[in-house]
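Data availability (excerpt). The following record was deposited with the supplementary files.
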Amino acid sequence: MPLDPYHLTPNASINRVKMSAASGLPPAWKGRMAYSLLGREFLVQRIHQSFSELATLPDPVPVFEQQALAGGDEQAVTIVRDYGAALGYLLLTLKTGAPADRELRPEWDESYWQHWGSRQHIIFGGGMMAGLFGQLALDAVRDIVGDLLTVEISPLAPILPLIGLARRLPPIPTQALVFDFGGTTVKRACVTIEEARLTRVEQLPSTALPTLPDGAALLDFMIATISDTWRVYPSPYLSPIISLSLANYVEDQRPVPDNGYGRLLELGDDTSRLLDNALAHETGQTVHIKLMHDGTAAGLAYADAVNTAVIMVGTALGMGFPPPDEGLLGLEL
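Predicted structure:
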């Protein structure tokens, strides 16, 4: 099936792209899937190998950045530059579409390679890219891609999906809740809409995603997170539309089958209605849940940007393509 850049399916994932033909690619990386080099799991492994004292932390990345990296530790800098280089080689692979690389991604027809080949600008998002880690990684990316692509880190990197979700809301003066259910954390915000423009994003503290054994436990966690946030804003002006982005592809308001949020399908096919009913029972209010793939939501934050891709760096790589901005709220942040 050809690529539809504004309705992405699991086949569009860049995590499964294998790198082979890029000039300068380290031999040890040839034939490796992007996720095996750029997933958070591999990054944490490298941090543990070099900084064993961080192995007991649930998430060593923030401390690694604040202490080892900020202190200029050579091993820490090498880890981050290697990460950035792998990201750069992935971009080269996507941009050039060499025959050897195409052979390693037989699921993609010409439409995928043609679309990536026409990208001229890459915007990175995700909390990992917002600080020193991101700046050092970006330098390494630029060393690899040279003049072939322009790259930048969004000044709103951690909350791009929240902004994209908000831009899809009706142009009615109101406040609304938006949630980004990621692979390791949940980000949430209350947004303000005035004169068909998004004028304020009040971000609330992130919530760690616990280990959840099945779809029922996942549903309970999601409903508790949303309802607890709802109670913080008992305003009569709060919109009944609650938008969620998921670290999962979404089709017809349902997560596609997956080991992550796709487990909600264990409870029935109509995921939005399932969430609506559970949340109404918890809050006593009639609400309408809208679901979206997190990368697609991030792309909406940059609607109308031409020949651009947005790549979210986190537990895995998410991505989206900015669509035309017709029908979306303007930005005045």
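Summary of structural features: The chain has a mean pLDDT of 96.
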